[in-house]
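Researcher: Please translate sequence to C-alpha coordinates.
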Amino acid sequence: MPSRDTKAAPPTGALVATKLAAAAILLFSSFVACAASVIKLAGTYSSIVFNEEGGDVLGYEVRIAPTARGFQAVVQVAEGAPGPLHVVDVIQTKDSIKFDIPLDGEVKGTFEGRVTASGLEGIISLPAGRVRVELKRTISYWER
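Model: Translation complete:
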Protein backbone atom coordinates (compact mmCIF):
# COMPACT_ATOMS: atom_id res chain seq x y z
CA MET A 1 0.00 0.00 0.00
CA PRO A 2 1.53 3.32 -1.03
CA SER A 3 2.17 5.81 1.77
CA ARG A 4 0.18 9.00 1.86
CA ASP A 5 2.06 12.26 2.03
CA THR A 6 0.52 14.35 4.82
CA LYS A 7 2.08 17.66 3.70
CA ALA A 8 -0.39 20.44 2.99
CA ALA A 9 -0.95 21.29 -0.61
CA PRO A 10 0.49 24.61 -1.74
CA PRO A 11 -2.09 27.44 -1.68
CA THR A 12 -4.07 27.95 -4.83
CA GLY A 13 -4.20 31.25 -6.70
CA ALA A 14 -7.69 32.00 -5.33
CA LEU A 15 -6.58 31.41 -1.73
CA VAL A 16 -3.54 33.68 -2.12
CA ALA A 17 -5.68 36.40 -3.67
CA THR A 18 -8.21 36.16 -0.82
CA LYS A 19 -5.47 36.47 1.82
CA LEU A 20 -3.91 39.46 0.01
CA ALA A 21 -7.30 41.17 -0.27
CA ALA A 22 -7.97 40.68 3.45
CA ALA A 23 -4.55 42.10 4.35
CA ALA A 24 -5.11 45.10 2.07
CA ILE A 25 -8.52 45.81 3.66
CA LEU A 26 -7.01 45.68 7.16
CA LEU A 27 -4.16 47.99 6.16
CA PHE A 28 -6.48 50.46 4.41
CA SER A 29 -8.97 50.57 7.33
CA SER A 30 -6.09 51.26 9.75
CA PHE A 31 -4.90 54.10 7.51
CA VAL A 32 -8.41 55.59 7.28
CA ALA A 33 -8.85 55.43 11.07
CA CYS A 34 -5.55 57.28 11.59
CA ALA A 35 -6.32 59.86 8.91
CA ALA A 36 -9.73 60.60 10.44
CA SER A 37 -8.10 61.67 13.70
CA VAL A 38 -5.83 64.21 11.96
CA ILE A 39 -7.14 67.77 12.09
CA LYS A 40 -7.19 69.52 8.74
CA LEU A 41 -4.94 72.61 8.60
CA ALA A 42 -6.37 74.24 5.47
CA GLY A 43 -9.29 76.56 6.13
CA THR A 44 -10.45 80.02 7.15
CA TYR A 45 -10.07 81.20 10.74
CA SER A 46 -11.49 84.52 11.93
CA SER A 47 -12.15 86.69 14.94
CA ILE A 48 -13.17 89.77 12.93
CA VAL A 49 -16.24 91.55 14.25
CA PHE A 50 -17.99 94.85 13.57
CA ASN A 51 -18.12 97.11 16.62
CA GLU A 52 -21.39 99.03 16.23
CA GLU A 53 -20.55 101.47 19.02
CA GLY A 54 -17.44 102.82 17.32
CA GLY A 55 -18.22 101.72 13.77
CA ASP A 56 -14.92 99.81 13.70
CA VAL A 57 -13.92 96.44 12.31
CA LEU A 58 -11.66 94.58 14.77
CA GLY A 59 -9.87 91.23 14.83
CA TYR A 60 -7.76 88.85 12.78
CA GLU A 61 -8.53 86.65 9.79
CA VAL A 62 -6.29 83.88 8.44
CA ARG A 63 -6.89 81.73 5.36
CA ILE A 64 -4.50 78.75 5.16
CA ALA A 65 -4.11 76.78 1.93
CA PRO A 66 -1.65 74.24 0.51
CA THR A 67 0.71 75.40 -2.24
CA ALA A 68 3.59 73.82 -4.14
CA ARG A 69 5.88 75.46 -1.54
CA GLY A 70 3.98 74.07 1.45
CA PHE A 71 1.22 75.79 3.40
CA GLN A 72 0.75 79.53 3.08
CA ALA A 73 -1.67 81.92 4.77
CA VAL A 74 -3.41 85.11 3.75
CA VAL A 75 -3.43 87.24 6.90
CA GLN A 76 -5.53 90.33 7.58
CA VAL A 77 -5.48 92.44 10.74
CA ALA A 78 -8.39 94.81 11.40
CA GLU A 79 -7.71 97.58 13.92
CA GLY A 80 -10.57 99.98 13.28
CA ALA A 81 -10.43 99.45 9.53
CA PRO A 82 -9.52 96.29 7.61
CA GLY A 83 -5.78 96.18 6.95
CA PRO A 84 -4.06 95.00 3.77
CA LEU A 85 -3.81 91.31 2.90
CA HIS A 86 -0.43 89.64 3.40
CA VAL A 87 0.64 86.21 2.08
CA VAL A 88 3.02 84.44 4.47
CA ASP A 89 4.59 80.99 4.78
CA VAL A 90 3.18 78.69 7.48
CA ILE A 91 5.64 76.53 9.42
CA GLN A 92 3.96 73.36 10.69
CA THR A 93 5.47 71.03 13.27
CA LYS A 94 3.17 68.17 14.28
CA ASP A 95 0.09 69.94 15.72
CA SER A 96 1.66 73.39 16.11
CA ILE A 97 2.00 76.16 13.53
CA LYS A 98 3.84 79.44 13.26
CA PHE A 99 3.68 82.34 10.81
CA ASP A 100 4.59 86.02 10.60
CA ILE A 101 2.00 88.77 10.75
CA PRO A 102 3.20 91.76 8.73
CA LEU A 103 1.93 95.08 10.02
CA ASP A 104 2.92 98.64 9.06
CA GLY A 105 6.29 98.95 7.31
CA GLU A 106 8.99 96.81 8.91
CA VAL A 107 6.97 96.08 12.05
CA LYS A 108 5.69 92.54 12.26
CA GLY A 109 4.29 90.11 14.73
CA THR A 110 4.32 86.34 14.96
CA PHE A 111 1.53 83.84 15.54
CA GLU A 112 2.46 80.66 17.40
CA GLY A 113 -0.19 78.16 18.29
CA ARG A 114 -2.05 75.08 17.24
CA VAL A 115 -4.94 73.96 15.09
CA THR A 116 -7.92 72.45 16.88
CA ALA A 117 -11.16 71.01 15.58
CA SER A 118 -12.83 74.40 16.18
CA GLY A 119 -10.07 76.74 15.00
CA LEU A 120 -6.67 78.27 15.70
CA GLU A 121 -5.58 79.10 19.21
CA GLY A 122 -2.32 80.65 20.26
CA ILE A 123 -0.31 83.74 21.00
CA ILE A 124 0.31 86.70 18.72
CA SER A 125 3.55 88.41 19.69
CA LEU A 126 3.68 92.07 18.69
CA PRO A 127 6.19 94.83 19.51
CA ALA A 128 3.67 96.18 22.05
CA GLY A 129 3.17 92.82 23.79
CA ARG A 130 1.57 89.41 23.50
CA VAL A 131 -2.11 88.68 22.83
CA ARG A 132 -3.85 85.33 23.31
CA VAL A 133 -6.26 84.66 20.43
CA GLU A 134 -8.82 82.08 19.39
CA LEU A 135 -9.82 82.25 15.75
CA LYS A 136 -12.87 80.16 14.89
CA ARG A 137 -12.87 77.91 11.84
CA THR A 138 -15.54 79.61 9.77
CA ILE A 139 -16.26 81.33 6.50
CA SER A 140 -14.62 84.70 5.94
CA TYR A 141 -16.08 87.73 7.70
CA TRP A 142 -16.35 89.28 4.25
CA GLU A 143 -18.59 86.45 3.02
CA ARG A 144 -21.15 86.59 5.84
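Researcher: Any highlights?
Model: Helices lie at 13-36.
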